[in-house]
Design a protein that fits this description.
Layout lengths: L1 E10 L3 H18 L2 E7 L4 H7 L5 H9 L2 E6 L15 H10 L4 E7 L12 H4 L3 E7 L11 E4 L5 E4 L6 H17 L3 E6 L5 H14 L6 E6 H10 L6 E4 L1 H15 L6 E5 L6 E5 L16 H14 L3 H16 L2 E2 L9 E2 L2 H13 L1
Parallel strand pairs: 1-2, 1-3, 3-12, 5-10, 8-9, 8-10, 13-14
Antiparallel strand pairs: 4-5, 4-11, 6-7, 11-12
Helix pairs in contact: 1-10, 1-11, 1-12, 6-7, 8-9, 10-11, 11-12
This protein binds nicotinamide-adenine-dinucleotide.
Nicotinamide-adenine-dinucleotide (NAD) binds next to α4.
Amino acid sequence: MKRFSIAVLPGDGIGPEIVHEATKILKSAAGRHGCELDLHEALVGGASIDAYGVPLKDSVLELTLKSDAVLLGAVGGPKWEGLDYSIRPERALLALRKELGLFANLRPAKIYRSLIDSSTLKPEVIDGVDIMVIRELTGGLYFGMPKGIEKLPDGTERGVNTMVYTTPEIERIARVGFEVARKRKKRLLSVDKANVLETTELWRKVVTRVGKDYPDVHLTHMYVDNCSMQLVRNPRQFDCIVTENTFGDILSDEAAMLTGSIGMLPSASLGATRNRAMYEPIHGSAPDIAGKGIANPIATILSVAMMFKYSFDMEEAASEIENAVEKVLDVGLRTSDIAAPGAKEVSCSEMGEAILRELDG
Ligand code: NAD
């Protein structure tokens, strides 16, 4: 029998509400597939600052390092905004990403037919869109050295960032890209700016070389400026996109907004080994609606589906969760963020329960 241990970190704001619903789905799906789970819940972010004075205790970090996967809600909120940067809630996220070595960020953007009107794009353009952006998370422009702002003798200033990638860094994210593409339509698009940036000339060369190990996956390349245009012109042409940190940051937000609903979007961040993985919604702690019971739990529930797919190799369990979400949306249940005329508006827990019933159906 499969057995997994999961660190559950609800965090702040709506975090506890949405994670509560997602945990029910996690247990139910595992149970039906004969998989045992050890769930260990802990405080993180602002909740941890209030209780212990730090956003991430060493013992919680240890817990995540010992676990097979981490399920995170969200961290942060106005209450902690005045604190020094070194102990802000968001530090917990950065520390987790660093210590777990999470270098690959997977962000799907899928259009649900029943939510097609939430998008700002025309239905005929986005109908059927199902894209996965795989973004390198620990290298490139955001981390490259040298960086900084210096004063020049003439009194002006000079700002510098460095886009740098080594062959091993490109190889490992490329492999994630090919592996993910294998679980989807076996098509991988690598995005770069190889006509201008030497760093991404190397990127293209290395991705192409790694591609020889995956003859079953069809690899293509596109420049980032073109990709950003194509995403709004004809997004259906895309399936899996792999790209470096800065391009991925921008393109994954652009792809996400095709769907028009932030409460629906899950994510996974993966490290070098199977037991290094964190799953979380892409949205934040939504302090404006925290405690009102109206948050949309679907992004977190779909993050659980990703956990089954990418950490536990339980694709059937993942599909069942995705189908249950789709069915509940099809019958017209909506949380307030995705409300529509004629649809039935439900609370966070009612949405969670409806998905659970559909799953257990
Ligand atoms: P946000 O994503 O929390 O909220 C943006 C808007 O979307 C708000 O109006 C909110 O009510 C709505 N929203 C978000 N998720 C929703 C859901 N599941 N259901 C219904 N409505 C939802 O972004 P923000 O307001 O810019 O940030 C709030 C706090 O969250 C800040 O402290 C920020 O630093 C933090 N944050 C955390 C993470 C994270 O933990 N990964 C990510 C982004 C922001």
